[in-house]
Write a structure and sequence with these properties.
Layout: H1 2-19, E1 22-28, E2 41-46, H2 52-60, E3 78-83, E4 89-93, H3 104-120, E5 124-132, H4 139-151, E6 155-160, H5 167-181, E7 192-193, H6 202-213
Parallel strand pairs: 2-4, 2-5, 5-6, 6-7
Antiparallel strand pairs: 1-3, 3-4
Helix pairs in contact: 1-6
């Protein structure tokens, strides 16, 4: 019973925190532009067009704090957002991966930036790897998970756009994603199901993010 009470308290603290000040801090096109590691960081990773910016916006309860675009791969830098005042932690919107239209040289630059950030950022507490519910785990997602495993960075798998498929299909995708998570040493065993549009799973994910930031 105490676990339920603790979770309820964490969820309420997270709700209050995210309804307070959340501000864009800066974009970092390379490691030298990273902000001082003065606060815990929670990073968001995912394929282009997985709904990453929409999920960040849903978590903070604002429509456009993170840019959304119909053009996949628009986020080409690490974007940092300060949560609460005084600062409690930062959200980091990472460049989308799996984009087909970007020149190979640009893709390699983004990949190196993400890899170096993941390997060397002491204050990084958790990465959320977003998976499109309509498609499930793809090879590019497995590549990112492997990168996180190698960097020994703990991560959560988060299914997005859950409102876009039937309940039975969602159940199957969720089960398959949980099974995949079990194969990876750095993956958290619980797979979150979310819909930015409908608000599904947002409260639970807020609580998870706050809990991870306090580790």
């Amino acid at each position: 019973m105490s676990d339920d009470k603790d979770l309820a308290e964490l969820t309420e603290r997270a709700r209050k925190l995210f309804s307070g000040p959340v501000t864009f801090l800066k974009s970092a096109p390379s490691l030298q532009f990273l902000p001082d590691p003065s606060a815990p960081e929670i990073a968001f990773a995912g394929r282009s067009n997985v709904g990453k910016s929409s999920l960040v916006n849903a978590l903070v309860g604002r429509k456009a704090i993170a840019r959304t675009s119909v053009t996949p791969g628009r986020t080409q830098e690490l974007n940092f957002f300060d949560v609460a005042e005084p600062l409690r932690f930062r959200l980091v919107d990472m460049p989308g991966y799996g984009f087909a239209k970007a020149p190979p040289k640009v893709v390699e630059t983004w990949r190196r930036l993400v890899r170096d950030y993941l390997r060397g950022r002491v204050v990084l507490k958790r990465t959320l790897v977003l998976i499109d519910s309509r498609h499930g785990v793809k090879q590019v997602d497995l590549d990112m998970m492997e990168m996180l495993d190698q960097a020994a960075v703990g991560y959560r798998l988060v299914l997005t756009k859950a409102d876009k498929i039937k309940a039975t299909e969602l159940e199957a995708v969720h089960a398959a994603t949980v099974a995949e998570a079990r194969k990876h040493p750095a993956a958290f065993p619980v797979v979150h199901i979310t819909s930015s549009e409908k608000g599904m799973g947002i409260d639970e994910l807020r609580a998870a993010v706050l809990g991870d930031s306090e580790l």
